[in-house]
Amino acid sequence: MEFERRDAPFVTPSGSVPDMMREVLYALIPAGLAYVWYFGPGFILNLLIAAAFCAAGEAAMQSLRGRSVEAALSDYSAMVTAALLAFALPALTPWWVTATAALFAIVVAKHLYGGLGFNIFNPAMAGYVVVLIAFPLHMNLWTAPRMGDIDYHYLTFYETARYTLTGALPDYLAFDAISRATPLDAIQSGLRNLRTFDELRSYPLLGDFGGRGWEWIGNFTAIGGAWLVLRKIVRWQIPFGVLAGLLIPAGVMYFFDSATHASPGFHLFSGGTILCAFFIATDPVSAATSNRGRLIYGLGIGFLIYAIRRWGSYADGVAFAVLLMNMAVPAIDYLTKPPIVGHPRKRRETR
Amino acid sequence: MTDIILILVGTVLVNNFVLVRFLGLCPFMGVSRNVEAALGMSLATAFVLTLSSAAGYLLHQYVLVPLDLGYLRTIAFILVIAASVQLTELMVRRLSPLLDQVLGIFIPLIATNCAVLGVALLNVQQASGFVESVIFGFGAAAGFALVLTVFGAVRERLDAADVPLPFRGTAIALITAGMMSLAFMGFSGMARP
Q1: CA–CA min distance A111, chain B (Å)
Q2: What was the pLDDT predicted at B193?
Q3: Could you identify which of A93, A270, A276, B147 might form a hypothetical disulfide with A210, taking C-beta atoms 3.0 to 4.6 angstroms apart as the criterion?
C-alpha cells in the first residue's frame, strides 16, 4: 500500500513561550474587534493603558531583581495579561483603575511569586478581582452594546478618552444616561425579584441566547479559542471541563424549573464564559498539569461560575472561580499524580 | 435539612473562619508547611471544635444560664476547650505517635486557637440549638481543614518557587493567604435563607 508523502514545511506549533503567547494574542484579535464594535473605542484605550502599565511593572521588577528586562518583555506574557484585563474591564474605565489592576497583576500576582512560571494565581484575574472589590462603582459602569434599533447615545472617541483620563463625561450626559445593567445583572436581579426567565427574555438587552452584543463577542472569542485548540496550544480538557461544569448544572436546573433559572444558552453566551474557557482558565502556569487534573480543574471552574451566578452576590463569577481553582491546583496535582512509567500503578505511600 | 446545608455552606465557604473571619490564623500559618502536617492538624482541630462546641452548648445551657453565671462564659469555655484539647492530645499520642511527632507543640496550641473559642462564643451569640451548634462547629472545622490543606499544598509549591529574597517564607505565605481571602469573597451572598 502506498502512503502519500508530504514534503516539508509542516505546520507545527513551536513550543517556545514567546511563540505561544503571540499565538494567544492573535487568537484574541477577532474577539477584540467585536468588542470594539459593540462597546466602543474604550476597549482600545484600556488595552493600551493596561499594556503600558504591565510592561512598566514587568521592567521595574526585572531590573530590581537585577535580571534582563528585554528577556521578560519579549516573551509577551505581560501583553497577554494586559489583553485579558482589557477584556474583563468595562469599556469605560478610568485609567487609574486599569493601572491598579495591571500593576497588581504583574507586580504582586506574578513577580512576587518569582515571575513567569511560578505564579500560583492567574495574574489578570487577580488584578481584576482587586479592582472589582476596591472600586465597585467604576467596575459596574457598563454601557449598552451597539444595537441599531435602540435610540442611544454612543460616546465618540474623544469623549471616551476624556472620561478615561479625567473621569469627566460630556456636560449634557449623566452616568444614568449611558450605563446599562449587564445581561447577567438583569437576569440575576430579575429572577431574585420573582420574575420568570421568559418574562425577562423580552428585555431589550437580551438577544437570542445571552445578551445582545455579548453573544456575538462570545462567537468571535470561540473562533479564536477553537483555533488555539486546533493548534494544540491549549488542551481540550480545560475548555471542555469549564463548559461542561457550567452547562450541566445550568441545564439540569433549567430542565426541572425553567421559570426561575436562566437557560444554559444564556449562561454560555453571557459575561466571560467563553473567554474564560479558552483563554483564562487555560493559562499553562496556574492550571493543573496532568490531563485528569485539567479536567477536574475545568469542571471546578465551570461549577463555581454557575454557583456564583446563581447564588452569589456577584453577577459574573469567572474571576473568582478561576482564582478559587488556582489555589486548589497544587492539591489537585498532588491527588492526580500520574503513575511513573514502567511502575505498576499502586496506592501512593505516605512519605 | 435545608438549614443544615445552609449552615454548612455558610461556615465552610461564605464565612470561612480563616479567610473571611480571620480567626485561627496562627495554626494556618504555623502548620501549613506541608500537606501531611496540615491534614493531621485539620483532623485534630475538627475533633476539638466539634467536641467543644457541643460541650460548650451544654455547659452554657444547663449550668451557666440556670445559675445566672453568664459573665463566666469566656472562662468556662476556655476550660472546656482546654479539656477537650487534652483529650485529643492523649488520643493522638496513643493512636498515632508519628502524627504526634509531626504536630508536636501545635496540638496544645489548639487550646489557644481563637477559632475554637470563636465558635463557642458565636454559638451563644446566635442562640442556636444543640444540633445547630454542633453543625456550626463541624462546619467551621471543615472550612478550616479545607483551606489549611489547600494552603499546605500551595506552600509546598512556594518553597520551590523563585520568590524574591525579601518575600521568601512567611511573607509570600501571608500574601498568598490574602489572595485566597480575595478569592473567597466570590462566595459572598450565598447561603441566604
Answers
A1: 8
A2: 56
A3: A270
**Residue of B12, B154, B174 to mutate for A, most A C-beta atoms under 10 A:** B154
Those residues whose C-beta lies under 8 Å from the C-beta of residue A320, and which sit 6 or more positions away, are A129, A304, A308, A312, A314, B183, B185, B186, B187
What CA–CA distance (Å, rounded) separates B85 from B91? 10
In a domain, A43, yes or no: yes
Say if the Cβ atoms of B183 and A307 lie within 8 Å.
no
A189 and B CB contact within 8 Å: no
Domain containing residue A148:
16-179
B119 touches chain A (CB under 8 A): no
Which amino acid is it at A317?
G
A323: contact with B, CB 8 A cutoff? yes
**Is any Cβ of chain A less than 8 angstroms from the Cβ of B159?**
no
Count of C-beta atoms within a 10 Å radius of residue B183: 25
Complex prediction ipTM: 0.89
* CB of A224 closer than 8 Å to CB of A29: yes
Domain identity same for A260 and A155: no
Rg (CA), chain B: 17
Task: Say whether both A46 and A59 belong to one domain.
Answer: yes
Whole-prediction pTM value?
0.90
Chain centroid to Cα A3, Å, comes to 44
For the ranges A40-54, B94-108, B144-158, B178-192, which has the lowest average pLDDT?
B94-108
**Of B4, B20, B44, B15, nearest to B145 (Cα)?**
B44
**pLDDT tens per residue, range B74-85:** 899 998 889 888
Are residues A131 and A253 both part of a single domain?
no
Residue A10 in any domain: the answer is no
